[in-house]
Amino acid sequence: MNAPLSRSDIATLFHLSPSERYTHFLTEAAQRGRVWTLCGQGGFVAFCDEEGHDCFPFWPAPELAEASADEDWSDCRAEPLELGVFMERWLTGMARDDRQVSVFPAPDGTGIVVDPLMLLQDLEDELRQPD
Fold first, then answer.
1. What is the pLDDT of residues 23-47, one digit of tens each?
2. Is this prediction's pTM over 0.85?
3. Which residue ranges make up each domain of the chain?
4. What is the dihedral of CA 32, 37, 43, 45, to 10 degrees?
5. Which residues pair with 78 in a beta bridge?
6. Which fold has domain 7-128?
């Protein structure tokens, strides 16, 4: 079990560039064996990207997801997803439904939006890395 992130750790991680946060997400997801999203009374959170695709955000730690639960998502809580379920069901289902993934978005809205099958491939590659 990983120790909870401090406020300082959270701030440092959110100040990384979107590409650095993407890499951090891959590493942490593989090490922890899970990812987090936000869930509220209306279900899992999503937003529309610039092309009008539904995007679902995911974070590598619950504290990072909760730090993003403000304004429209103020009633939400961090919801864990086992990595195998995320990869096999969520990402393949999102690809089938023409949805996108927002990987480790910051509260200021910056982040990387990717095709779910691209993220799936990157996670598979990360899991194949030697420890």
1. 999 999 999 999 999 998 888 988 8
2. yes
3. 7-128
4. -170
5. 38
6. Trna Endonuclease; Chain: A, domain 1 (3.40.1350)
